[in-house]
């Protein structure tokens, strides 16, 4: 049987009757925009992730854009960020007319290297935008220190990291705001697009509440030029059902990661490193090796899926070349793009799948080393 990167059918089958009931409830209520499911989901997710406020929006991308806007980021401002992420992180900065200032990553964690951030601050810097990539939080202690010292906003892209922790505090308890994505294959996925902003700051929550609703300050009165970006009731109803399972799913991902690491460590492949004090939620289990493309083909021939997140660093993408970066400017990010490979880790993997993928990788490594050594 093929081992896949995600299995949304299995997930639906496991909760079919509850999800069908929840959908029916919304249809019968005929409340489709900003109804009770959105409010309850906002409360539930904020509480579980140690934030005072949750604000549901139309996507993870909008969650970043609106958070930056709420922190005052606009035309000509600089935002320090990572080039090794999904394009939405950078796109949100550019859509506001601000300028992404790229800082290289730490190759052990694939996250923004906090030690390099301060040297890139200028009088135009307004915010720092790290990503908690693959489900592990960036070094928020160090980043908060830099943000506080220079009076900058700290917005974290937590699209892949719902439930993750840093120093015992969950993802929503850090920075000015943290953004989530409910893209269907995320750890908590909707049946369409959706996102949320988590924050402890009432002023930011109020601003995003207004910005997501056209900048409205009351009935047909507009304080700001806003967006039309609400999480809809149908998605919220589905997410509330799925949220009940999220802890179990995360634990399954953590068990899978443990097996991968124990089987692959010492094989010559770089296994992901979890920084002390972090709780990883394993949206992806991502290894690193020079022969990445051959391994991908080797696994594919055995009906084992794998994926490259991400094959191209953002500073070198045609759309972002306007910011003047060249190949070699951010060597760790560029190297990661050549070497990373994510392995199947979702909670619905069939029994023994992680062991089988690991054994295939060890076989690949063995074959490679016997070819290399005479
Ligand atoms: C790191 C990261 N940031 C932002 C996003 C954007 O989220 P969405 O697709 O919900 O807009 C995603 C996911 O797609 C992501 O993985």
Q: Which molecules are bound in this entry? A: pyridoxal-5'-phosphate
* Helix/strand class: alpha/beta
What is the H/E order?
HHHEHEHEEHEEEEEHEEHHEEHHEH
Helix percentage range? 25-40%
What is the oligomeric state here? single chain
Question: What is the CATH top level name of the largest domain?
Answer: Alpha Beta
Over the alpha carbons, how many angstroms does the gyration radius reach?
21 Å
The biggest beta sheet is recorded as:
7 strands, mixed
Instruction: Give the total of beta strands.
Output: 14
* Count of folded domains: 2
Q: Any idea what the shape is?
A: globular
Second rung of CATH, namely the architecture of the largest domain: 3-Layer(aba) Sandwich
Strand line-up across the major sheet: 1-9-8-5-4-2-3
Determine the number of helices (DSSP H or I, runs of at least 4 residues): 12
> What is the straight-line distance between the termini?
36 Å
Q: What's the CATH topology label of the largest domain?
A: Aspartate Aminotransferase, domain 2
